[in-house]
Amino acid sequence: MRFIRPVWLTHKGEKKDFEVYSCHVSPDGTRLATAAGDGHVRVWSTDAIYNAADQIYSKPKQLASMSYHTGTIHTVRFSPNGRYLASGADDKIVCVYKLDNNPPSHAATFGTDEPPPVENWRIFRRLIGHDNDVQDLGWSYDTSILVSVGLDSKIVVWSAYTFEKLKTLSNHQSHVKGLTFDPANKYFATASDDRTVKIFRFTPPGPNSSAHDQMNNFTLEKTINAPFAASPLTTYFRRCSWSPDGNHIAAANAVNGPVSSVAIINRGTWDGDIHLIGHEGPVEVCAFSPRLFAKQAPNKATQDGKGQGTQHLVTVIACAGQDKALSIWITSNPRPLVITQDLAVKSISDLAWSPDGKNLFATSLDGTIIAVAFEEEDLGYGVSLEENEKSLAKFGAGRRGAGILEGTGGLLLEERSKEGELRGVEGRMGALMGDATTKQDIVVNGTTPLNGVLVNGVGSAERRDGLPAGDGDGASTRPPVQEDPNAAKLERLKQRVTITKDGKKRIAPLLVSSAGGESSLPRSQLMASTSSAQGVKNDTPQTILDLSKPFDGLPKGGLAALLLGNKRKFAVIEGDEDGHIEKKVALASQHGAVPILSSSVDGLVPAQSSIPVTGQLPTPEFIRPAVTNPSLLVSQVRLAVPKIRSQIVRNFGGTSGDFVIGNSSNNAITSSAEVVLEARNPTGLPVTGRQQDREPSRVTVTKKGQPVWQDFLPKSVLLVTGNSDFWAVACEDGSIYAWTPAGRRLINALILESQPVIVECRRWWLMCITAVGMCYVWDMKTLSAPHPPVSLAPVLDIAVHGLQSHPTPAPAITSARLNSEGRIVVCLSNGDGYAYSPAMYTWQKLSEVWWAVGSQYWNTTDASVGDLHSSSTQTNGASGTANVSAGVIPYLERNTTNETLVRGRAYFLQRLIKQLLSREGFEGFESGVSIAHLENRLAAAMMLGAKEEFRVYLYMYAKRLGAEGLKLKVEELLRGLLGGVYEIGGSAGETESRTARNAADRSWENNVDMLCGWPRRELLKGVVLILGKHRDLQRITVPYANVLEIVDGTDGGEVMVS
Question: Is residue 259 part of a domain?
Fold first, then answer.
C-alpha cells in the first residue's frame, strides 16, 4: 500500500488551490475526472498518476479541461458504458460531455497556463431541472437513466438515451446529498438531511421512453430512519455506496449512540445492525470496491470439480469524512484493515475506486487529490467479474452482453430489425417538432379503408398477395403526396412574432411537449379503466366487442351462488334428538331401499309430501317465486332464481341494428324502427279458483306500436331475449320457446331440469343457464348444440368446497354472455374470467387477479405493437371472420381490474408480492409472471379465435423473450410458428382426429398455412424482425431470416410498426 500525491495533480488557483469536491474513474480505468471550485472539470491520465515518480515519463498528464459551469462543481461521474461524463454544480445545471474522436480544435486557452488538450470532450447536453445546487449524480448500471439530486430536495430522473426529463421525485423533506445505484439495476438509494435514506424501485426505461410512459415507474420502496435519527446536519455530502454483490448499502453520516459511524443496510429487509465505528467525526463518503476479493489466489485447490471457486468472497469498503481520516474495511474482519489519520488538511469530499479494485482516489476540500495503490496481498485476491454476475443473478440482474456478430446475415438482420424502432423515434420526434402530417384516408381508384391508404383498391400496408407493401419489384404506383393542410399553420406558429411591454420584438417559442409519446416498455398498473378522451389507448387493436348485449341486468354484486358439499349431515330435527330418523334411514339402506332425502340448507331431511295451498294469497310487487324443480334437491350448485314479473318488455331500437320482420326471402321487410317484445304474466286469481288453473301468459311483438304477432304460453315467463334472427322466452317450469321474426314457432319447447336464470342470444346462438348451474348453448339455425350441457360448478370452486358438509357461498356471476361462435364467456365477482372450450370440453380461465397484481403487462399501452392492425377488416375473409372474439380478452381483464379494486383484494395481494420480491428465490418473480401472463393471453386468443389480439400479443411476447434472452423459448416459438406444415411424417387420419372439433388454424402444430387467421409466413416474419436486433439470439433467428429472404432485402420490415 503506497500513497501517490503528484504536485501537478490539483486545480491550481492564483493564491491557493481550489477545493476539489468530486472524482471518478472511467470504466476502462484510464481516466480520472475531478471537479472543483474553479468551475472546471479536469480529465487526468491515471497512467501518469501511477508513474508520477518516474522522471522520464513524458506522456500527457492532463487530458482535457472543461469549464461550462458558472459556479462550483460538486459532482462528476462517468457513465458505465464510457460514452458520457456528467457533472453537476451550484449553477443548478447538469452538464453531459461526450468524447469526440476528432482532435481538439485549439492548442491551449489564451492567457492561461493550461496545458493543451489531448482529448476532445465536448458539451453534449445541458440539463435544467433543479432549483438549487446539484449535489450528486449517478448513472444506472445499464446506462439507461441518469439521476441527479440537489439542495432543492428534488430527485430528477433523466433518460440516458435522449436526456429528456422522465420524472421528478419530491419525497425528501430537506437537502438531498447522496445517491447510489443497485448493481442489479433494480433500485437506487438517496440520502438526505431529513435524516432518511430512501430506496426507490425502478424498471430501466427504453430508448423511446417519455415522461408519460414513466408515470408509474420510480416508486418509493422503503424509507430508512433508524441509523440517522441523531445524525449531524453539518456535512457537505452524504455519499452512500452499494456493494458489488448487491447485498448491502453503506450509508454515510450515521450514528451509533453518540458515536459517528457508517450504517450497513441489508438488501430486501432494508434494516441492519452493523455499524462501522472508527471515525472521530461524521463520515461524508463511502465507496465499495467494484470487485469481490478472496483470501487465497484462485487455483485448483480452491476450485471444485467444475472449476467453480469454493472460497468465501468478501467486499472492501473505504470511508472518509470530516476527521480527515481514511479507513479501509473488509467484510470478513470486524476491525478496519487500515486507518490513515490526517490524510488531508480539510475534509475528504469524495472517493473513487479503479475498476480493478487495486487503486483508490481521494479528494479533499484543501485541493488535495491523492491516489492509494494497493499491492496484491493487501486487500486479498480479486476474482473475475463473473463472480459479481453470479452474486447479482439471484437478484434478477439481467445485464447480458451485447453479443458478437457471427456473419453478415446477422448484421443485415439487426439493421432490418432496428429500422422499425428508428421509424418510431423519427415519427415521434417529427410529431413533437410539428413536422408530422395528419392521418388521412387517401383514396385512389378505390374505397376509403378503415386504416391506411388505398392504392388501386388495395391498402398500402397490404398488397393483394398478402405480403407487406414494399416487397417485390416496386412496380406499384404511388399516390401523389397531398399537401398537409396544417403545415402552413404550424409554420406560422413557429415564426410568430410578439411584442413585449418595452416594445421589443420577440419570436414566441413553439411548445414542444414530450407527454404525447408512447413507449414500448411495459408498466404494471392496476387502475380503473379510463376514458378514451384522455388519450389512453388500450392494448387491443379494435374497439369491437364480440359478445351478446345483455337485456336483463343481474342483481347488484352479481347472481348469487351457493355450493352444497357431498358430505351432507342430517339436519337437527325437533323431537329427534336421539337420531332415530338417521338410524332408520341407514337401516333401510342396508336392505337395498333408496330413501328419498331433501338437501336443505341446514342439511339432509326426509322428503315430505307438501300440502296444496288453498285460499287467497296476498300479491306482492312480484307475483311469486318460480316453482321449485326436484333437480334442485340433488344438485350441488344453487343459483338465485328471478322473481316472476307481471310484465317484461324488451326494446329493440334502431341502434341495435336492422330487424327483419318476416322470413328471410327477398321480400322480407327490413326495419330499423322500434321493435318491442313484451311478455305479460297473469296477475289475478284463477277463474276456476284452483291454483293450477292459471291464465296463460301473452307474448307480443309490436312495431311502432302496431302488433306484429302474438302467442300464448301456459306457464309464466321469467326471461326474454331476441335479435333479428329469432325470439326466445324462458318459462318458470324450465321450458324454452323460440319463434322466427314473423312469429312462427321455430322449435318445440325445450325442457330443462330447472328454472332458467340467464338467457342470452348472439346471432343464431341461444344460451341458457339454469338454477342448478347447467349451461346450454343451441344453434337455432341448424337446431343443434355445439357441445353437451356443461355445469358452472368447476368455475364456482366446487373442487375446493365439494367435500365439505355445509353449504358455502360461491363467487357471484356478474356476467354470462355469448360470442359470435357460440362460446360461453363468464365473469365472476372474484375477478376471474372464463370461457368454455367446445374442442376440449372444459372451462378455461382467461383472466384472474394474479396477473393483475403480478404482471408488468396489465393495463399496458404498448404502442410498438398496439398499432399493428390490418388495413382492412376484409383480410382473409369477411369482416365477421376478422371480428370473431374481438375484445373479449381485454373485456375480461377490465372486469378483473374493476372487481379487484372494488373489493379491495388488490391491496393485500400487492403487499404479498412486494414482500416476495425481496426474498431469496423470488428474484425472477416479476419477469416470470409477466411472461406467463403473455403466454396466457396468447393461448386465450388462439382458443377464442381472436385474430387481431393474437398478433398483438404474439409480438409483445416475442419482444419480451428477446429482452430476457430466453433462447429455448425463442427457438420453440419460431418452430411453433412454422407448425406442422413443414413437418415430415404423421398420418392424415391423425391430423383429422386432432382438428375434428377445433378450427383448422387454431393449433400451433396444424398442417395448414394459417395460424389464428394469419398467414404463418407473415407472423414468422414479424417475430424474426423483432428478435433480429438481439445478437445473442442471432444463431437462432438468422436461419429463419434466410428462409424468409429478409436479410437479402427482398422481404421487408413493414410487418410491424414500432
Answer: yes
For residue 10, the domain's CATH number is 2.130.10.10
* Phi, psi angles (nearest 5°) of residue 444: -130, 110
Structure-model confidence comparison of residues 388 and 123, the more confident one: 123
Burial class of residue 578 in the structure, from the number of CB atoms within 10 Å of its CB (0-12 exposed, 13-18 middle, 19+ buried): exposed
Q: What is the pTM of this model?
A: 0.58
Can you spell out the DSSP letters for 644-670?
Answer: PPSEEEEEE-GGG--EEES-SSTT-EE
- The DSSP secondary structure of 748-810, one letter per residue, reads EEEE-SS-EEEEEEETTEEEEEETTSEEEEEETTTTB-SS--EESTGGGTHHHHTT-SS-EEE
C-alpha neighbours within 13 Å on the C-beta side of residue 1045: 7
Tell me the C-alpha distance between 636 and 796, whole Å.
11
- Residue whose C-alpha cell is 485448483: 300
Number of domains, the chain: 1
**Which letter does DSSP use for residue 309 in this model?**
B
Residue that the C-alpha cell 452524504 belongs to: 238
Which strand (E) or helix (H) includes residue 836? Answer: strand 833-837
Closest CA to 322 of 371, 277, 365, 361: 365
- Residue 929 reports pLDDT greater than 70: yes
User: Comparing C-alpha atoms, which of 731, 734, 739 is closest to residue 694?
Assistant: 731
pLDDT at 898: 86
Instruction: Note down the domain range covering 344.
Output: 1-17+235-297+313-395
Q: Which secondary structure element, helix H or strand E, spans residue 250, and what is its range?
A: strand 248-256
Strands ordered across the beta sheet of 62-66: 20-25, 31-36, 41-45, 62-66
Q: 208 and 228 in contact (C-beta within 8 Å)?
A: no
Number of neighbours of residue 7 by Cβ within 10 angstroms: 6
Q: Residues with Cβ < 8 Å from 73, sequence gap 6 or more?
A: 21, 22, 35, 36, 37, 39, 40, 41, 87, 88, 89
Q: Cell triple for residue 518?
A: 408512447
**DSSP string for 282-303:** -EEEEEE-SS-EESS---GGGB
Residue from 317, 363, 325, 368 nearest 76 by CA: 363
Note whether residue 243 is domain-resident.
yes
> Among residues 481, 303, 416, 535, which one has the least CA distance to residue 1047?
416
DSSP conformation letters of 461-478: TS-TTSSPTT-TT--SPP
**CA–centroid distance for 169 within its chain:** 22
The gap from C-alpha 522 to its chain's centroid, in whole angstroms, comes to: 4
**Cα 113 → chain centroid:** 56
The three cell numbers locating residue 201: 424501485
Adjacent-strand bridge partners of 329 = 317
Residues 613-624: pLDDT tens digits?
A: 555 555 455 545
To the nearest 10°, report the CA torsion of 1045, 1050, 1055, 1056. Answer: 90
Q: Is residue 328 part of a domain?
A: yes
Would you say residue 960 lies in a domain? no
- CB-count exposure of residue 793 (10 Å: 0-12, 13-18, 19+): buried
Across 920-942, average pLDDT = 86
Kindly provide the b/e burial profile for residues 828-861, where b requires at least 16 CB atoms within 10 angstroms of the residue's own CB.
bbbbbbbbbbbbeeebbebbbbbbbbbbbbbbbb
Query: What percentage of the chain exceeds 90 in pLDDT?
Result: 34
